[in-house]
Amino acid sequence: MTGSRWIDPGVGLSYLTQMAKLPIVTLPDPILRQPSAPIERVDAEVLRLADDMLETMYDAPGIGLAAIQVGVPRRLVVLDCAAEGDKPEPRVLINPEILHLGSQLKVYEEGCLSIPDFRVDIERPSELRLRYLDREGKLQEHDAGGLLATAIQHELDHLDGKLIIDFLSRLKRDIVVRKFKKLARQDGPL
Ligand code: NI
């Protein structure tokens, strides 16, 4: 066959459905402090970004990722808080909003893909009510508890430019930031 303009449908399809791993922005990149803007329309581009973020999160591996962590200042979060070995529970939250926080508090040791090899105990409300748009652009309201409630609060903080080091004293936070600035200098520009 010569001069054919036909594209093998199998190849075309796999190209369209292929997900891509994205580079994760780390401390001290100032974009992590930027507040994210709402998503105006749930379109193919947004869903593609969500899929790429899921792929990036699973590969890292992590249990949550906000769009700002891949350099996109939009209110989009992906999560999977299923226990290890259980069926995956990928979640995509578009323009998520916490409607209500419970009064009980719980401490989890939190890490962040943007702050590698750093963990800190953080006390947060253990239950919440969340409103968000799903992948179909439909408004959803759900209650969450346990690790999922913590992960949601962690990721929503990212959308407002807040990081887990903000729960530390100023002195301890400065030490962590200095360490990451030094590491960034050693690695040089990417
Ligand atoms: Ni994080």
What does this entry look like structurally?
The protein has 190 residues and is α+β, with helices and mostly antiparallel strands. The protein has a single domain, classed as Peptide deformylase (Peptide Deformylase, Alpha-Beta Complex), CATH 3.90.45.10. Helix content is 30%, strand content 27%. It has four helices and seven strands. The strands form two sheets. Strands 1-2-3-6-7 form a five-stranded antiparallel sheet. The N terminus is likely disordered. The site of nickel (II) ion (NI) has 5 residues, from helix 3. Nickel (II) ion binds next to helix 3.
Strand content: 25-35%
**Radius of gyration of CA atoms, rounded to a whole number:** 19 Å
Give the low-confidence spans: 1-16
Query: In which order are the strands of the major sheet placed?
Result: 1-2-3-6-7
Order of helices and strands: HHEEEEEEEHH
Give the helix/strand layout:
Blueprint (H helix, E strand, L loop, with lengths): L8 H9 L26 H16 L4 E3 L9 E4 L11 E11 L3 E8 L2 E11 L1 E7 L5 E7 H14 L10 H18 L3
Antiparallel strand pairs: 1-2, 2-3, 3-6, 4-5, 6-7
Q: Key features?
A:
190 residues; alpha+beta; Peptide Deformylase; 5-stranded antiparallel beta sheet; two-stranded antiparallel ribbon; 4 helices; 7 strands; globular; disordered N terminus; binds nickel (II) ion
